[in-house]
Prior knowledge:
The chain is built from 19 helices and 26 strands. The two termini are 47 Å apart. The chain is of the alpha/beta class. The strands form seven sheets. Strands 1, 2, 3, 4, 5, 6, 7, 8 and 9 form a nine-stranded mixed sheet that branches. Helix 4 (84-90) packs across helix 5 (104-111), helix 14 (355-361) crosses helix 15 (395-401) and helix 16 (452-463) runs antiparallel to helix 17. Bound molecules: coenzyme A. Coenzyme A (COA) is lined by residues 275-279, 300, 367-368, 370-371, 380, 383, 389-390, 392-395, 410, 413-414, 418, 420.
Amino acid sequence: MPDIQPDQSMQQIQEQRIRLPKLRDRITTATHAASWIEDGMTIGMSGFTRAGDAKVVPLAIAERAKTEKLKISLMTGASLGNDVDKTLTEAGAMSRRMPFQADPTLRAAINRGEIMYVDQHLSETVEQLRTRQINAIDIAIIEAIAITEDGAIIPTTSVGNSASFAILADQVIIEINLTQSLELEGLHDIFIPKHRPRREPVPIMAVSDRIGSTAISIPPEKIVAIVITQKTDSASTILPPDEETAQIASHLVNFFKEEVRDGRLSNNLMPLQAGIGTIANAVMMGFIDSPFEHLTMYSEVLQDSTFDLFDAGKLDFASGSSITLSAQKSNDVFQDIAKYKDRLILRPQEISNHPEVIRRLGLIAINTALEADIYGNINSTHVLGTHMMNGIGGSGDFARNAYLSVFATKSIAKGGKISSIVPMVTHVDHTEHDVDIIVTEIGLADLRGLAPRERAQKIIQNCVAEPYKAMLFAYLREAEVRGGHTPHVLEKAYAWHSRYRETGTMLETLEHLKAAA
Length: 517
Ligand code: COA
């Protein structure tokens, strides 16, 4: 990303980045800006999957919390980079967090019950704020590339919930980030739905439709402090595709080829949404060597694969709420953002994840499961039913409303000691009603039009490897003897998880252990 030019004076920076002159006297230090924050306040910060987060004021809040009683409720778009969640947690500066996180230190504090975490559909947070169903935002802290002549805020690499936070907050602190190129101006499309019950439809008819403004309009008087920063976004932590994720991608590509052959999809498919993480990114990479052309994305996070697909000439347009890239990809993309800009839009997350738009456009939603059960219920969030991993994020917004809802997972985790397909999921994020396809490296189960007993046969047969396959068929046979629309042996439904907790593996017998070795 571009640095400040050595010959760039503070005056030039101010002219380019704080275009409303009367706001220039609000420039201050992070420490001084943090002094606006009071104990017990609810703070809304920019940041979505490590992109466009406020980077220096939160750390100054953490510093204060080391020496005085200062605990905030923190709302963001999604997860943060720059160790912001970690630092606030370690300083004891956070009592409540929503709607998403992905930080190991914060995760541990949540699982110890020290920080109250509200894991929420990402499209819903600002709806609840707007209607005063949850605590109002006192102060918003928003990263921006610039403030316009009218005092409007131009965000950086994410929009997330920033627009509504700034509009709804009493006061706003801006972090102007000089490492973020002014070329980003024009990328954002800020649209705020009107109040209900007389709300109009969100007028997006195609992924490339622009329906709002390029900056967040607020009364400039609300801006109480402006801090100049030069900290870059944290790089994404996803791993490159491996053999299993490549197999998952290949099964999906073959499935889509059949859908095209049978006339249910055309060769440009439908707009694609891909979830966060290594698996979703790898699945999208699989489209590079596919026969599909003129693809589009209507997604939430745009990861490396989006730009690989652009470069491969496969993708025509991508709409998201943030751009989160690996270090290398970030350099390549942001050095040359002009190359992609007319094919990209960043929207507020309530619009990128809007049920109405997802249903209208007919998305193919591809999200990731921690575990799935034999009937197709999905757990995306809770390890062994109790311990939070990250959160549901936008996966529920998309899965419920998509044209086709796909969940991908590796069939095993932790070296085979855990089966990702289990008799009954220990926590339900997505019910069987919202899941059309389950795919693992073993194969793909097309569940459309199937009743529970048929779904179980398909999932076990197509998605599970031995010895878990035999174990699941044995469970299903025993359950079917008991009968029911969705047969279970309730006292054994969580036996696999209990066994893992007690013995360190879900495998049942010595023979299974030998077979797996
Ligand atoms: N039980 C326990 N742990 C499991 C598991 C299971 N059934 N399946 C996977 N894991 C562990 C892995 O071992 C890995 O652990 P590690 O970090 O200690 O190595 C971790 O979960 C991540 O798994 P990985 O296979 O690397 O997948 P990923 O990076 O693609 O992430 C999710 C998968 C489910 C955690 C991630 O996609 C997520 O948080 N999803 C929910 C939010 C979401 O879908 N958002 C998208 C909306 S647009």
